């Protein structure tokens, strides 16, 4: 057996025989770390196992039959909806998020629900059994069918899985686990790749539902190479704003469901609670009086409309270059809207600072927010209060035209349910507004029509 020294990029997994300050593959700086790699012979390379072992005959697509996978529900409504209806046997999911955001809390709650009908093995490489038990007591988790293990050696983990033979496996976290045959430290590219492949080879044939927790870097990306995301079936990212009780769970990859959904959770003293009605949650702000610089919209995340409060502050600047700040929305998109307002309705913004923010700490990219951003900026600049019973839902183009957004009928129906009396949008069909009985719809053609309606 021979060994050789390589320098592996901790960002993308690129290997180089010598050190370099900048990775030639991904372009990141100071990511090449020295590792000792086992140099296998040709015979050993032929015996190397792949992640999974699949072999089938060649058939026509028309002759093949789709297999409908039965779903196993966790009875956590937001989690099940995010996964496409529940879990699938043999599914390997990766949950990533910042430290302290609630990954372990969510997994312990999922384990508690699944343990009512399935055997769960919870393996931790970061906490002791006493710490896990203390959290379980705070969450009032009944652990009769949950088995705990504190281990970081992947070989001992494999032996424990074969001994307990669980139906659900939770590993917290993959960056703390190491393979004893590799000399590199835990969390490096080689260790993460090999330990994850061992779990895939172990759990896929047995049909074990597996959850792997992962750390994120200071940039918010998953620590380790992208190969870790390629090896799993589902990648979930926990996200939140600083000091915010609301947690957003977004799927970046999902082989058994949609990636356009979003799960909302609220952190409480008894753990994470599902926010099933997101619109009512964000509608808790004061809507009893008109305000300058505030406009409501309904953004669509997956299949759910979310009530969004757009706030804008336009104030004179004392500096030669006015500031443009956007929180929760794309800054480049806002800059385009500001230019359209100046060009088409003559709004003077060249000597004013503009701050745009979405209330509640959410980050959205729905084009339906364009009209609300424009309405909030016009309201703040011209000191025109916007009525609290008005909602704005349309996309604004660079030429000042107003365009219809997808699923406008679902947005209008949700707006009417929330008590809005007037909606501003582009022209819609009779079928899309036939359910409107308590709300009137103002159809706009361009930004000039919006400016006239706000006077």
Give a written overview of the molecule.
With 455 residues, the protein is of the alpha/beta class. The chain contains twelve helices and 23 strands. The protein has helices at residues 42-46, 77-82, 103-114, 129-138, 154-164, 189-206, 227-231, 278-282, 331-344, 369-382, 408-417, 447-453, and strands at residues 2-9, 15-16, 32-39, 92-97, 120-124, 146-150, 168-172, 209-214, 234-239, 246-254, 263-268, 271-274, 291-292, 294-301, 304-316, 324-327, 352-358, 385-386, 390-392, 395-396, 402-403, 422-425, 440-443. The strands form six sheets. The chain has a nine-stranded mixed β-sheet with strand order 6-5-7-8-4-9-10-11-12, sandwiched between helices. It has a four-stranded mixed β-sheet with strand order 14-15-17-16. A three-stranded antiparallel β-sheet has the order 2-1-3, with no helix packed on it. It starts with a strand and ends with a helix. The model is unreliable at 41-47 (pLDDT under 50).
């Amino acid at each position: 057996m021979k060994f050789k020294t390589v320098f592996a990029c901790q960002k993308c997994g690129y290997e180089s025989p010598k050190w370099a300050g900048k990775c030639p593959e991904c372009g990141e700086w100071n990511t090449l770390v020295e590792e000792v790699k086992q140099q296998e012979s040709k015979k050993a390379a032929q015996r190397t196992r792949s992640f999974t072992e699949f072999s089938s005959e060649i058939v026509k697509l028309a002759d093949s039959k789709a297999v409908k996978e039965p779903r196993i529900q966790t009875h956590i409504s937001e989690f099940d909806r995010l996964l496409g209806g529940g879990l699938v046997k043999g599914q390997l999911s990766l949950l990533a998020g910042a430290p302290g955001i609630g990954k372990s809390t969510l997994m312990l709650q999922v384990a508690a629900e699944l343990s009512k009908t399935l055997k769960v093995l919870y393996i931790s490489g970061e906490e002791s059994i006493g710490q896990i038990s203390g959290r379980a007591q705070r969450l009032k988790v009944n652990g009769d069918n949950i088995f705990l293990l504190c281990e970081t050696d992947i070989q001992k983990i494999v032996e424990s899985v074969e001994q307990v033979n669980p139906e659900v496996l939770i590993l917290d976290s993959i960056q703390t686990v190491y393979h004893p045959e590799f000399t590199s430290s835990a969390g490096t590219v080689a260790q993460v790749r090999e330990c994850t492949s061992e779990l895939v080879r172990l759990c896929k044939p047995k049909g074990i539902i597996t959850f792997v927790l992962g750390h994120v870097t200071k940039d918010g990306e998953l620590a380790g190479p992208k190969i870790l995301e390629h090896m799993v079936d589902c990648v979930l990212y926990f996200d939140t704003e600083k000091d915010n009780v609301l947690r957003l769970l977004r799927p970046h990859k999902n082989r058994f469901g949609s990636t356009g959904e979003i799960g909302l959770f609220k952190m409480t003293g008894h753990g994470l609670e599902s926010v099933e009605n997101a619109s009512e949650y964000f509608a808790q702000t004061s809507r009893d009086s008109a305000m300058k610089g505030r406009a409501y919209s309904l953004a669509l995340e997956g299949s759910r409309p979310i009530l969004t409060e757009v706030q804008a502050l336009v104030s004179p600047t004392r500096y030669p270059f006015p500031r443009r700040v956007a929180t929760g929305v794309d800054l480049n998109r806002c800059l385009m809207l500001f230019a359209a307002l100046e060009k088409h309705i003559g709004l003077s913004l060249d000597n004013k600072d503009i701050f745009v923010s979405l209330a509640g700490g959410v980050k959205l990219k729905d084009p339906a927010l364009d009209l609300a951003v424009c309405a909030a900026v016009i309201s703040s600049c011209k000191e025109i209060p916007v009525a609290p019973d008005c909602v704005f839902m349309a996309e604004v183009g660079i030429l000042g035209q107003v365009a219809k957004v997808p699923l406008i009928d679902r947005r209008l129906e949700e707006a009417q349910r929330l008590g809005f009396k007037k909606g501003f949008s582009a022209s819609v069909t009779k079928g899309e507004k036939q359910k409107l009985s308590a709300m009137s719809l103002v159809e706009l053609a361009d930004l000039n029509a919006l400016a006239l309606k706000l006077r």
